[in-house]
Each structure stands twice: as structure tokens, then as C-alpha cells.
Design brief:
This protein is mostly helical. Helices cover 74% and strands 0% of the residues. Helix 2 packs across helix 11 and helix 4 runs parallel beside helix 11.
Length: 273
């Protein structure tokens, strides 16, 4: 499997781009010369892009380039955290529902069906509105809305495995449910779930940016890309660079991670084998 990935130049290229994006977020102070993204210089307010300010400045005189680079930290970490939470929660609930069946399956899947019946973004806005605007609450809201897809997928995979001969043999020989789950069920489910998680990173980032843009996510003065778009909206005509910088960052990062997820799916998806 590893050799297949290494031989796939397309996957390697996209992985390198994603790694560079993560490095830029980690080493933001080095790339920005130690400039504070929240530092205001009112005399420099709304300056157009120049050699001194590559992406221009915002209404408070803050360097947009510096804020975009630091914003990668918030946007990427929040998106990764959401994907991790829905991956773990959805996989665990789906495996449990598929293996044990009965009332456990009925309760979990009917709960998932009920949540799917609501528009995802609207439901996330409602949850975030109840919890209060913050990036943490936005992560919780998106995670609570998005786990259902993983649960349903994990359940369907477990249902295919549960009736296999080797699982029946394990049950007959007296193996405990915990042993069967950790030895047979989860290892067979994980590869497909990882591929699904990889393809969802870009989508989760867009949802979080959307919540921040609407006022349900990050709060000022945090340099979060969705919030920066919202701050630049009143100046769309007079200072468009306030929106171009974070908008371009969202576009590039989402495209890279979406293409990487699709490429990994083509290489790693067990169904292709």
C-alpha cells in the first residue's frame, strides 16, 4: 500500500502542497517576521497592496498578509479537529450499531436519520447560536451535525463483515465482543473511514469559515479567514484586498485538500482493489 502511494506522483505532489500549508501555519512567526496579527496601526488603515504590505492593510491598519498566515493556524486546526471528532464519534457509533443491531441500532440510526432531516448548515447555526459565538462552539456545532455520515458508513461496512465465516467462527469459539470488534470489525472499517475523512477536510473548513462569516464562529480580533471575509465585506468596493487575501487562502487550501482526498481515495480505497 505504501509503495503504491509513493509511486503515485500526483498524491506525492498534493501531499507536499498540503505539508507546505501546514508548515506555513506552524511557522507563521518566521514567515511574518514576528509581526503581531492583532497589532493596529491606524495611520496605515486601508492601504493598498505594496512592497511593505503584500496584501494591503485592513480598516485598523493590520497587515492582511500577516493575518492570513496566522489565520491558517485557526482554520486548519479547527478543520482537523472537526474531522477527528466526527471520525471517532461516527465510526464508534456506526460500528456499535452495526455489530449489536437490535434496539441499539434502531436508536442510533433513527437519531442519525432525524439529524440528517435538517439542513446541515442551518442546524449548525442553531447549535452555535445557542452555545454562543466562538471557534470552539463552531467546532462543536459542525461536529454534532456531521457525525451521521460516518456512523451510517461504518454501520454499512460492519453489516457486510458481521456475517463472514471468520466472524462466525470467532463467535462459536467464545470470543468476546470486544475482541471481535477490535480484531475484525474496526480494522476492516478504518481504511474507508480514513479516506472519507481525508476528503472532508476541505468541506469542514468551508463550513467553519461560513459560520465565522455569519457571526457564529471566531470572534475579533482572531485572524480567522471567515471572520476576515466578514470584516472586509463593507469595504468590498473601496478596499477589495481585505477579502481577496483570506478568500484566496480559503480557495487554495480547500482545493488542495479536496484534490488530496480524492487522490487518496483513488489509491487507497479498498473497493478499488
Amino acid at each position: 500500500m505504501k509503495m503504491v502511494v509513493k509511486k503515485n506522483k500526483y498524491v506525492c505532489l498534493l501531499s507536499m502542497l498540503a505539508f507546505l500549508i501546514i508548515l506555513a501555519a506552524v511557522f507563521a512567526p518566521l514567515l511574518t517576521g514576528g509581526v503581531d496579527p492583532a497589532a493596529s496601526v491606524l495611520k496605515d488603515a486601508l492601504k493598498a497592496p505594496s512592497a511593505e504590505h503584500i496584501f494591503g492593510t485592513d480598516k485598523l491598519g493590520r497587515d492582511v498578509f500577516v493575518r492570513v498566515i496566522y489565520g491558517a493556524r485557526i482554520s486548519l486546526s479547527a478543520a482537523f479537529l472537526v474531522v477527528f471528532l466526527i471520525f471517532v464519534l461516527g465510526t464508534v457509533l456506526g460500528v456499535v450499531a452495526g455489530y449489536f443491531g437490535g434496539w441499539t441500532d434502531a436508536v442510533l440510526m433513527r437519531t442519525a436519520d432525524m439529524m440528517v432531516s435538517f439542513p446541515g448548515m442551518v442546524f449548525a447555526m442553531a447549535i452555535a447560536g445557542i452555545l454562543g459565538p466562538s471557534i470552539r462552539n463552531a467546532v462543536i456545532a459542525v461536529a454534532l451535525v456531521s457525525w451521521t455520515k460516518y456512523a451510517r458508513l461504518a454501520r454499512s461496512l460492519v453489516l457486510k463483515i458481521r456475517n463472514r465465516d471468520y466472524v462466525a467462527a470467532a463467535v462459536v469459539t467464545g470470543s468476546k465482543s470486544s475482541y471481535i470488534l477490535t480484531t475484525y470489525m474496526i480494522p476492516n472499517v478504518i481504511p474507508t473511514m480514513i479516506v472519507t475523512a481525508a476528503t472532508d477536510i476541505g468541506g469542514m473548513m468551508l463550513e467553519l469559515a461560513g459560520l465565522s462569516f455569519l457571526g457564529f464562529g471566531a470572534k475579533a480580533p482572531n485572524p480567522e479567514w471567515g471572520l476576515m471575509l466578514n470584516e472586509g465585506r463593507p469595504f468590498m468596493q473601496s478596499a477589495p484586498w481585505m477579502m481577496i487575501g483570506p478568500g484566496a487562502a480559503i480557495f487554495v487550501v480547500v482545493v488542495v485538500f479536496n484534490l488530496l482526498g480524492d487522490a487518496l481515495r483513488d489509491v487507497l480505497d479498498v473497493r478499488e482493489e
